[in-house]
Amino acid sequence: MARLIGWVVTNLDAFIGLVLAVTVAVLGLTNTVSQDVVNSAILLVLGLLAQAVLRDRLRRRTAEQEVRQVIVDTRERLTDLVPPMRELTGPEGALSRAREAIHSSSMVRVLHGSEVGQALAEARQHTDRWDFKGGTGTYLRAVTLPECLKLARRRNATLTVAVEIIDPTDEEVCERYARFRRSLESDEPTEPWTVDRTRKESYATVLAACWYAQRSGLLTVDLRLTAQMTTFRYDLSSSCVVITQENPQTPALRIDRGEVYYNRFTIELDYSRRQSRRVPIESAGQVRLDDEPSVEQVRRLFTALGLALPRSFGDREVADVVRKALQARNPYT
Predict the structure, then answer these.
(1) What is the domain count for the chain?
(2) Are β-strands 129-133 and 277-278 bridged in parallel, bridged antiparallel, or unpaired?
(3) Residue 80 domain-assigned (yes or no)
(4) pLDDT, tens digit, for every residue of 200-217?
(5) Which residue ranges does UniProt annotate as crossing the membrane (predicted)?
(6) For position 10, what pLDDT does the model report?
(7) Residues 159 and 257 in one domain
(8) Cβ neighbours of 281 (radius 10 Å)
(9) How far apart are alpha carbons 4 and 12 in whole angstroms?
(10) Which of 4, 19, 61, 145 is most buried, judged by most C-beta within 10 A?
(11) Helix/strand/coil for 218
(12) pLDDT at res. 79
């Protein structure tokens, strides 16, 4: 009922004309009123209809003018918004920078605990290269070299390993590294980090590289020694790069191949090696190493490589180097 009353109020002139026309028609049919009255009523109804038509045309014209004005105002406002929108959506705009920031954050995965070892295991699966840069290379000789070689033999594929570790003949860098390792909080019941231990660990990695190279025609090793200490370890395979620190409890980073920073770390490691001292590992062929190298073989090996052992290293220290080279413990276990 309320809806009907609202319609009547909105269309009052048309409703009055309708009622008047029906009333006069009924009265004219029943001869209740004269023909002059009927004619006058007809004229009145026609006038109401004309007034309604004129009103609708006026409303339509007013509405069209309002729509045109809205379009003009909208065009002007959009024109004013074009420069700010370009700043937002252009190649150097805020949206583009935000998109790059979000994409960059997804490039790097943070690894915790057992995820680090799992990521390194995945990186070894199908790789034909391994670039390492770090301290003394304990994980490299304990896990990376033997596991990568095992997988390469299964695939009957070649393996290229590039290694950069601290120079065991440089006492200054060995002292810095030992001091750094001692500064790390650790409850691990291992031997203390001293200059001699640092030298042994680094010599052990050189020995391990030569030992594995002699036992596999699939392996090519590029070994470099640096006087610069790094607190990070970089393990780069053909599928990803994993960045760790000396403390196994510290979260690691993984960047997959195809991401921008994978290529940049590849360049970084390559240029870092170029600035380091190359070990002529081909000279290791002059000394045949047994499955359990003797002290004499090890001494002759390092002499051939131009890395003569310190005079303070007796047979016990050389045997310790052999043990560290071939029986290194996985730091992630």
Answers:
(1) 2
(2) unpaired
(3) no
(4) 999 999 999 999 999 988
(5) 12-31, 37-54
(6) 60
(7) yes
(8) 18
(9) 12
(10) 145
(11) coil
(12) 72
Q: Token pair for residue 64?
A: 């069209």
Is 207 found in the same domain as 120? yes
Give the DSSP per-residue string, 8-45.
Answer: HHHTHHHHHHHHHHHHHHHHHHTT-S-HHHHHHHHHHH
- State which amino acid sits at residue 197: R
pLDDT digits (tens, 9 = 90+) for 118-136: 999 999 999 999 999 999 9
Do 60 and 119 lie in one domain? The reply is: no
Alpha-carbon distance of 63 to 253, in angstroms, equals 64
Give the per-residue pLDDT at 62: 76
Q: What is the pLDDT of residues 70-129, one digit of tens each?
A: 777 777 776 776 666 665 556 666 666 655 554 555 578 899 888 999 999 999 999 999
- The answer to whether residue 101 is domain-embedded is no
Which residues have C-beta within 8 Å of that of residue 286, sequence separation ≥ 6? 300, 304
The residue to which tokens 């060995």 are assigned: 174
Helix (H, G, I), strand (E, B) or coil at 108: strand
Angle, vertex CA 311, rays to CA 310 and CA 317, nearest 5: 70
> Rounded mean pLDDT of the chain?
83
Residues 258 and 147 in one domain: yes
Residue 69 corresponds to which tokens in the numbers above? 């004005």
Q: Are 222 and 283 within 8 A, CB to CB? A: no
Cα angle for residues 185, 186, 189 (degrees, 5° grid):
150
Q: What pLDDT shows up at residue 119?
A: 93
Q: Check whether residue 68 and residue 117 sit in a common domain.
A: no
User: What pLDDT was estimated at residue 274?
Assistant: 95
Q: Please tell me whether residues 68 and 119 are part of one structural domain.
A: no
Q: Is the pLDDT of residue 295 over 90?
A: yes
- Hey, what amino acid is at 90? G
Residues spanned by the domain of 196 = 110-326
Answer whether residue 272 shows pLDDT above 80: yes
How many Å apart are CA 102 and CA 264, to the nearest integer? 19
What residues contact residue 219 under an 8 Å CB cut-off, 6+ apart? Answer: 149, 152, 158, 159, 161, 212, 213
